[in-house]
Structure prediction request, 317 residues.
Amino acid sequence: MTSNFVPRQYREVAVATVPFPLTASELARHFLGREVYRRTRYVVVRNGSETAIVALETAPSPEIMTAALGVTVLALPSECAFLVDPETDTGVPSALAAAARAAGASARAVVVEGRYHHVNFLLDPEPVRIRVLDVVPPAPAKLVDQVSRVLAVAEDLPPVEVVATVVDLGDLARSSPARRYLLPCRGSGFNGSGAEVAFLDERPPRQDWTLIGCARSRELHRWFYGDLPPAIDMCPRTLTAASARSSSRPLAAGEDPPVVTLTKCCLLEERVEVSGDTVVVPWGASLAQIRQGVDEAVRVYLAQTQGLAAAAPGPAS
Prediction:
């Protein structure tokens, strides 16, 4: 099996409590030839605090029960962690990975009894790491929150770990102190920390200010006032480009997997754009567009990591 394996449907997973030691030989002896429900493909086996996982090969049958023709031990107790988390939807791979992360579980097989008392497992977790870069205020960082909401119901994606990078507009302002700041709109929630604050969408009388905005804000300022003021660029896409690792350099064997960045830009209105290892969604993206952006970020990440695996040298002969 590959990494990040999660059963496609948790109804394929049965739970059995047994009185014998959870060794490979005892598990095979117990389940081989045993009558099981025809949809059962995996069994989480428990003996006290110990847990093991087996996969069953069953004969196709029109009957409700069938026989286990083969038994493969996927994980023994030394490799398993069993977690109880009533808030986790065990049908969602990212939720399983998040539960394991929160519990500090480092086992190669993580079994979770979650919402509705459903039980499922994640085998050999290697979550896709997506950096989500956004700005605040307003808080919480909207893009980070939207991505988390999308992943909370993404049953068809591999486990995804969000690495949030949140840039505070107050920190940007402090990097270029001014008596007055101009923000794109009042909805930003920026208070200026003692400086005067005006909002571009209210079209205030022209003053001596520093614009905290982006390319679109500068276009509007020129339209309204015929000039461009000193400016601090707050565009998440620009902030990403300033810190991004070049995606043109090939990854070296043993190098940590890349973190693909998902961010936003108000110059995009309807489309999602991919540039190297950066995925950009519109500033006011819908959840459907966020899902498209996440899909693209996962695709880019897997292409990079699988490309590295393909290029890695095999074992010496």
User: Anything to note?
Assistant: The two ends are 24 Å apart (CA to CA). The longest helix spans residues 287-311. Helices lie at 24-31, 93-103, 142-151, 169-174, 215-225, 236-243, 287-311. Residues 163 and 170 are 21 Å apart (CA to CA).
